[in-house]
Design brief:
The chain is α+β, with helices and mostly antiparallel strands. Among the domains are: about 80 residues; about 60 residues, no CATH class. Helix content is about 35%, strand content about 20%. It is built from 14 helices and 11 strands. Strands 1, 2, 3, 4, 5, 6, 7, 8, 9, 10 and 11 form an 11-stranded mixed beta sheet that branches. A hairpin with a 6-residue loop joins strand 9 and strand 10. The longest helix has 26 residues. The protein is elongated, with a radius of gyration of 27 Å. The two termini are about 25 Å apart.
């Protein structure tokens, strides 16, 4: 418990003393517990001052989670010599019942289908050299009424002019400014989260990573308005155009679009690298292209893979709004986006993102944020103990604190308290019980 208290002293300006004490007690219980991470189970594993009513009171309190995550990160996880990125992604948690706040049907990629549950969107900071992600903000995705969100579908009785079946551009229409976009509810929520995270850091981040679902102009303009560059992925059939090669003739508007890019037949002058592994040859091309739905040129990187036996090809189109970003760096940064998936995995497997049974808005939000915040806490604890024990992981952390919890209960029933050095030796032994990588070099369980 002493490590938790010392780590959480940075929260003193942001939390009341009583709330901070409850926070430390609950975090210790979550670290030590087995079974589902629910309020009832947390209260069973906390020490004195962690009754069920106290835990319930904590979960019904509005907490500044983005501030807490940011303060913890800057105090314990930040390295000024490293490079940092921001990444965002959504996760879906299956839930049953009818009364849980925000319960709806969402597509879950892990299940490959639409399921009934809750959806959460998270924004994390990614540490490039260490290749780790640290959650900064997570919010629940709540859908509105279907009638307000679904577009109107043209019916057979609708006039042909209203349906837009006539070829060509409608008469009287004017050019639109592609930098002025209307954000949907998802992008508005993402923009709010992004601004919240940026307000808690000192502007040492330049890039925001998103998956291919957000590879569109509306998202790019939203990210640029926040002062960042977007790194994402385009559709495989995206209509990209090379710079025009025809010289300007001196009359009319200069050409903007050249020949359309064919990802399977790109001029070798755009090739950055090529390597062969087995029968697969991977070629990397980097081109500054135009897209008719984007107002500015895009820094496009095409990864073309060819099977030497079958001659079949496949390609991926990555892009960034930063035209100076090198191809290898862009590919490396985009691959780091997957680190946020490990945050979701740990939060679900160890810290209760799949377990909580809260139904009201504030408790649901606190349960989700606590599970993601524990990812940062476990990362710091792994750094603290990992220097002495190679491969120290989450299961070792939980074994350590579970052993300390057992020791605490054992000392309460002893007629006489042992000396401090004896308690330390017992603690070392208890902490190694159930651990994968032993936390005790002196005594190991037989």
């Amino acid at each position: 418990m002493s490590e938790i208290v010392s780590l959480f002293t940075v929260f003193s300006p942001h939390l009341l003393a009583t709330l901070l004490r409850q926070f430390c007690c609950i975090v210790f219980g979550v670290l030590a517990m087995t079974g589902g991470v629910t309020m009832r189970n947390i209260s069973r594993w906390t020490t004195q001052g962690g009754s069920y009513r106290t835990v319930a009171r904590f979960f019904n309190t509005v907490l500044p989670w983005p501030t807490l995550c940011s303060v913890f990160f800057r105090a314990h996880l930040y390295d000024p010599d490293d490079v940092y990125l921001l990444a965002g992604d959504e996760t879906v948690v299956p839930k049953v019942g009818d009364n849980t706040y925000g319960l709806s049907r969402f597509f879950a990629s892990t299940y490959g289908k639409t399921i009934r549950g809750l959806a959460f969107f998270a924004v994390s900071i990614i540490r490039v050299k260490k290749r780790r992600s640290y959650p900064m903000c997570i919010e629940q995705v709540v859908r509105g009424e279907a009638s307000q969100t679904s577009p109107k579908v043209a019916t057979a009785s609708t006039p042909s002019k209203m349906r837009g079946t006539e070829p060509g551009r409608p008469k009287g229409s004017k050019n639109r400014n592609k930098t002025e976009v209307i954000l949907n509810d998802t992008l508005k929520q993402l923009q709010s989260m992004l601004k919240t995270v940026l307000a808690t850091i000192d502007g040492f981040i330049r890039y925001f990573l998103l998956d291919g679902y957000f590879g569109n102009n509306r998202t790019l303009q939203m990210v640029r308005d926040c002062g960042l560059h977007l790194i994402s992925k385009l559709r495989r059939d995206a209509a990209l155009y090379l710079p025009p090669t025809t010289p300007y003739q001196g009359r009319g508007r200069p050409a903007i679009y050249g020949e359309r890019l064919n990802p399977k037949d790109i001029d070798s002058k755009y090739r950055v690298s090529a390597q062969t592994q087995g029968n697969i040859t991977t070629e990397v091309y980097q081109i500054v292209c135009q897209h008719k739905r984007f107002p500015d040129p895009l820094n496009v990187v095409c990864l073309l893979k060819t099977d030497a036996k079958t001659q079949e090809t496949s390609h991926v189109l990555l892009f960034s709004s930063d035209l100076e970003l090198e191809a290898e760096t862009l590919i490396d940064y985009y691959s780091l986006r997957f680190q946020i998936e490990f945050n979701f995995r740990d939060a679900k497997q160890f810290w209760g993102l799949d377990d909580f049974i809260n139904v009201k808005e504030i408790p649901v939000n606190n349960a989700a944020n606590l599970s993601m915040f524990m990812v940062n806490v476990s990362a710091k604890l792994r750094e603290m103990f990992g220097s002495e024990h190679t491969g120290f992981g989450v299961l070792d952390i939980k074994a350590r604190y579970r052993g300390l919890r057992y020791l605490h209960e054992t000392l309460k029933i002893l007629p006489q308290k042992p000396e401090t050095i004896v308690i330390d030796n017992i603690a070392e032994h208890f902490a190694s019980i159930g651990a994968i990588h032993y936390t005790s070099n002196q005594s190991r369980p037989g």
